Amino acid sequence: MKENTLGFFDKVYEVVKQIPYGRVTSYGAIAKYLGASRSSRLVGYAMNNSHGKDVPAHRVVNSLGLLTGKHHFEGTNLMQQLLENEGITVVDNQIKDFKSVFWNPVEEL
DNA sequence: CGCGTGACGTCCC
DNA sequence: CGGGACGCCACGC
Q1: What nucleotides of chain B have any atom within 7 angstroms of a protein Cβ?
Q2: Which residues make up the interface with nucleic strand C when CB must lie under 7 A?
Q3: How far is the CA of A38 from the C1' of B10 (A)?
Q4: Which of A20, A67, A75, A85 is most buried, judging by how many CB atoms fall within 10 Å of its CB?
C-alpha cells in the first residue's frame, strides 16, 4: 500500500472516514485540508466514486449544510435518515445548527 | 495527449 | 437581496 501514491480521491476517503459520529463537514473544508480549496468539486466527484466503499458520504454536505448529494443515495431521503440516525436534525434538506455539528478537518487533524 | 465530467464555491449583474 | 454563470482541477476514457 503506497499511501504516498494515493490519489486525490483516496485522500478524500481517508478524511471522510475520520469524520466523528454525529458530526458533518463540507466539501470545501476537505478540499482546503488537502490544500486544494479550489478543487471542492473534486471532493464531490470523489464521493461519487466512494459509492460502494465504507465512506460515510452522508456526513459530507456543502458549505451551506444542504444535502445536495442526497439525490445520489438509493432512497429519496436516505441521506437524511442516516444523519438523523446520528442525532443530526435535518429540515428541508438542510442540517439544523450546521455550524454546531460541523467538523473542521483543518483544525481537528 | 486531449476532452468531458462533477454530490462546490465564489464572483458578477 | 436573489439568481445565474463561470472557474476550478483531478480522474477516466
Answers
A1: 5-10
A2: A 7-10, 36, 38-42, 45, 49
A3: 10
A4: A67
Q: Angle at CA A91, nearest 5°, toward A83 and A88?
A: 30
Amino acid A78: pLDDT: 92
**Is the distance from CB of A80 to CB of A3 less than 8 angstroms?**
no
Checking each nucleotide's C1' against the CA of A45, the nearest proves to be B6
Rg (CA), chain A: 13
- The pLDDT tens digits of the residues spanning A33-67 come to 998 888 899 999 999 889 888 999 999 999 999 99
CATH fold for domain A3-101: Arc Repressor Mutant, subunit A (1.10.10)
